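Exam revision sheet. Question 4 asks you to relate a sequence to its structure. Input first:
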Amino acid sequence: MTLFQIGALAVLGGFTGFAAGLLGIGGGMIMVPFLTFLFTLYGFPLEVVVHIAIATSMATIIFTSLSSVRAHHKRGAVRWDIVILLVPGILIGALLGGGKLFALLKTSWLSLIFALFVGFSGYQMLANKKPKPSRTLPGKVGMFGAGSFIGFLSSLVGAGGGFISVPFMTWCNVAMHNAVATSAALGFPIALASAIAYIISGYGNPNLPSGSIGYIYVPALVCIALASVVTAPLGAKVAHQLNVAQLKKVFALVLFALSAYMLNKGLITLGVY
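Answer key, structure tokens:
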């Protein structure tokens, strides 16, 4: 890679690391659109460019989430009781989502799925609907089901799960700051299981560029991870200084912008315009 490419990836890593700490989204919601743009410029084959962006993004979350959750844990904001109940389902869902189905989906459909769910999540946060005061988290079976859905969809779109888990937890009357912090903790098992699935499902694909392990592009992974682990704790610090309304608005606006980009990417790839 050139110095410019390394620099661009480092800046992206620093920005997404900060966002991961601030919003509990693992950085993937931001990283995938930008990596798609950069990898397209690098000349990666169009049929796998979004797959590589999603897989590489998710792999970086392994490192980002550890740095982010450490900062949140120091402030006592992580609900480890929720993490324990969600993780078994998350592991199964992530392994399934990042497997054969991920490899079979075309770039256009991956882009559209990403745009749809990110945009919906942004709407949910911006709408700021108040949950019923009596609503609480479901039991063990319900939490396993929720975890499976979070893991499956997250691995499919390359995100740390915050775009689903944060709205889910706030809907169940978990405080926003606790939801963000807990989502950061969920990012590690989602990313680890998904990365394993991406490596297996991409193994032997002749369209992948040199330096890839499965669908994960290692040079980009290294650049982004090194920068993101430095800035993630800074984002976590800022998150605890903002009020709930501000945090939700920031979250929603970021998601809308990225949803629009990936929607445009998907429609272009489909040949709509």
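Marking note for examiners. Residues 46-74 form the longest helix (29 residues).
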